[in-house]
Specification:
Number of helices: 2
Structural class: alpha+beta
Strand order of the largest sheet: 1-2-3-4
Distance between the termini: 57 Å
Order of helices and strands: HEEEEH
Shape: extended
Radius of gyration: 17 Å
Helix content: 25-40%
Number of strands: 4
Largest sheet: 4 strands, antiparallel
Strand content: 15-25%
């Protein structure tokens, strides 16, 4: 199935998708009520939130590229364990 037909099917199943400006035909960006900017994929997965629109768009592109290439683990790490020890 070519990309055009896939897009038509997706738009007919979810007409609300056509209401948004899609970046790279992959994710959308919007301003939150707190003045921040957030992104979300067409599948509805919330992605990133940041101070400026340009920064969020750039980092979402980078994040999705790393996911696609399978290299995201090279740029992430866990700091701390977030486990409370002892009695509260």
């Amino acid at each position: 199935m070519d990309l055009t037909n896939k897009k038509k099917i997706l738009m007919s199943e979810h007409p609300e998708i056509a209401e948004h400006e899609w970046i790279d035909d992959c994710f959308r960006v919007w301003e939150t009520r707190f003045g921040l900017w957030s992104t979300e994929t067409k599948q509805g997965r919330k992605m990133l939130t940041g101070l400026t629109r340009d920064a969020v768009v750039d980092m979402t592109r980078w994040h999705l590229k790393c996911e696609q290439e399978g290299t995201l683990h090279l740029y992430t790490r866990v700091v701390g364990s977030a486990i409370v020890g002892g009695k509260l």
